[in-house]
Amino acid sequence: MSTIVRGNALKYGDNINTDIISPPQYMELSIAEAAKYTMSAIDPEFVNRVKPGDIMVAGTNFGSGSSRETSPLTLKYLGIGAIVAKFFARIFYRNAINLGIPVIECDEVDKISDNDMIEIRPEEGLIKNLTKNETYKCSKIPPHILELINEGGLVPYLKKSV
């Protein structure tokens, strides 16, 4: 099973927590409504510039804070194809995988710029920056986790398995 994720990089810094991704004052709304406010605390134009398949790129500690799934759910709703960061808060990391979003750790994210076209090869542990013609090493996603992601997340995977 070969999985390649290709998209435009949306670049952010360190410590992008769940309250930044999905502001808590909107968590009572439906995911469709709450998604309109995704990243609004630091990027009010995020929902206007994000396109299906885009790849979020950030520094360390991405997704720290709350364990609620609202943050990865709003990103999935908006069509984020993958998230690349130096390091993820572990609960966010697992929530994203459970929702079918590939999450990749890469020490070289500083070399990726906003709007670079990147290609992730999660089985190989590589990110190709097509804009800069560079390749970076990253974490690999094991085949059984890729299968879960390709099914759309844990619930669809389990439904298929039963």
Radius of gyration: 15 Å
SS field, number of helical segments: 7
Count all strands and give the number.
7
Helix content: 25-40%
Shape: globular
What is the strand arrangement across the widest sheet?
4-3-2-1-5-6-7
Low-confidence stretches: none
Oligomer type? single chain
Query: Helix and strand string, N-terminal first?
Result: EHHHEHEHEEEEHH
- The helix-and-strand class reads alpha/beta
Distance between the termini: 21 Å
Kindly estimate the percentage of residues that lie in beta strands according to DSSP.
Answer: 15-25%
Q: What does the main sheet amount to?
A: 7 strands, mixed
Mean pLDDT: 95
Structural summary, described in words:
This protein is an alpha/beta fold and about 160 residues long. About 30% of the residues lie in helices and about 20% in strands. It contains seven helices and seven strands; from the N terminus they run E-H-H-H-E-H-E-H-E-E-E-E-H-H. The chain is globular. The two termini are about 20 Å apart. The relative contact order is 0.19.
